[in-house]
């Protein structure tokens, strides 16, 4: 039985440590210090680093971890990852035999040009692409790439557990509620997430079925989202990609517009 533990780092990052009480794989160690503390406290032997993309808050701990432990570093083949030993692309599989876990690699560009996800054991490690009730900013790719990447993730089984790398859920939900106010599943989620955050409980992992019911970036074919995008752009946008592009742009400035601090 695998445990997947959120090691907290920086303001709102989670570094997921997948372990079986003995061996551990570390997903996106932006900082080494909290990971080293957790490994020592739990007496875990790390066997791999798994990076989803090159941003420093996901890879900044690689070099320090490698000073303490010898292990392979998996990550996107097309990005500059410190200590990378195994460059990965779509349809590669990472075999973590110590954990009896195989992870399939998915190319999901958009947030960065080479961003990848790992999927296996009903779990998805999707970095900064899909968030609970939101999605990553488009820094290097195009809206079209990001939309296709999110659609690819949405096609995984409904029961998939979604391990994103930031605690952004509450602010994401504020935006989602503004554009999808009549969605009862979203209203229910607001109550649950507010309660969790009041007690400093992580809102992750999410479940893909819940994302499909509440995440506006996976609901660009729904009339409420189309309507909101049309109102905001003052244009008639009907295809899901145009709706997605509009609401992704809208969210980039939403918290300035509404004067809510994120
Ligand atoms: Zn990032």
UniProtKB/TrEMBL annotation:
The keyword Transferase does not apply. Pathway: Secondary metabolite metabolism; methylglyoxal degradation; (R)-lactate from methylglyoxal: step 2/2. Its cofactor is Zn(2+). HAMAP family: Glyoxalase_2. It comes from the Bacteria. The gene is gloB. SMART domains: Lactamase_B. Its EC number is 3.1.2.6. One of its GO terms (biological process) is methylglyoxal catabolic process to D-lactate via S-lactoyl-glutathione. Residues 12-166 form the Metallo-beta-lactamase domain. Binds 2 Zn(2+) ions per subunit. Coiled coil: none annotated. SUPFAM superfamilies: Metallo-hydrolase/oxidoreductase. Zn(2+) 1 binds at residues 53, 55, 111, 128. This is Hydroxyacylglutathione hydrolase. Belongs to the metallo-beta-lactamase superfamily. Glyoxalase II family. Monomer. Zn(2+) 2 binds at residues 57-58, 128, 166. One of its GO terms (molecular function) is metal ion binding. The keyword Metal-binding applies. It catalyses: an S-(2-hydroxyacyl)glutathione + H2O = a 2-hydroxy carboxylate + glutathione + H(+). Thiolesterase that catalyzes the hydrolysis of S-D-lactoyl-glutathione to form glutathione and D-lactic acid. Keywords: Hydrolase, Metal-binding, Zinc.
